TrEMBL record:
Pfam families given in the database record: Ribosomal_L27A
Example GO BP: translation
Boundaries of every Large ribosomal subunit protein uL15/eL18 domain copy: 95-152
Function noted in UniProt: Binds to the 23S rRNA.
Taxonomic source organism: Promethearchaeum syntrophicum
Protein name: Large ribosomal subunit protein uL15
Matches recorded under HAMAP family: Ribosomal_uL15 (MF_01341)
A Gene Ontology cellular-component term: large ribosomal subunit
GO function term, MF aspect, one: rRNA binding
Length: 163
């Protein structure tokens, strides 16, 4: 039985544009070279770019229209070195019993001996109140935390070296 009708796609094999005109036509963005303010601004949108820069778009510096990379991104290693993992006084108080069960905190008589560095905290913040007798060792503490601990007669040892 002879074939009376072939699919158009079969006829268009080895044809550069497959019946859709210029190269790039019949695609999502057509032949315009993308969308957005920065796409193609140094190629086919060059005159538009110059006009907008002259008008001061989008601001006095024209930040969106600058050529090339800007800024500097710090390496992750440096960010990790200077990262602050802080905890508030009230969170210390709330977690004391759990830490005591887990063996992360010691108790001598009525005093809790807490090493926040071993708990992976390097700064103590001053939110909350001190109700239990404690001895705390930490790298850094905020001024408010130091004041509250002095008022509650809690021994605080700061281990950070002054730079």
């Amino acid at each position: 039985m002879p074939i009376t009708h072939r699919k158009k796609s079969r006829k268009m094999q080895a044809n550069r544009t497959r019946g859709y005109g210029t190269i790039g036509a019949h695609r999502a963005k057509g032949v315009r070279g993308g969308t957005g303010l920065t796409t193609g601004k140094f190629k086919h949108k060059w005159t538009y770019y110059l006009k907008m820069r002259a008008e001061g778009f989008p601001g006095p510096d024209g930040d969106k229209w600058r050529i090339g990379y800007t800024g500097f991104k710090r390496p992750q290693k440096m960010l990790r070195i200077y990262a602050v993992n802080a905890i508030n006084i009230k969170e210390v108080e709330l977690n004391l019993d759990q830490w005591l069960e887990d063996g992360k905190v010691e108790k001598k008589g009525t005093k809790y001996i807490i090493d926040l560095k071993s708990l992976h905290y390097n700064k103590l913040l001053g939110s909350g109140n001190v109700t239990k007798p404690m001895e705390i060792t930490v790298e850094k503490a905020s001024k408010k935390a130091i004041e509250k601990l002095k008022a509650a007669k809690v021994k605080l040892t700061l281990t950070a070296t002054k730079e």
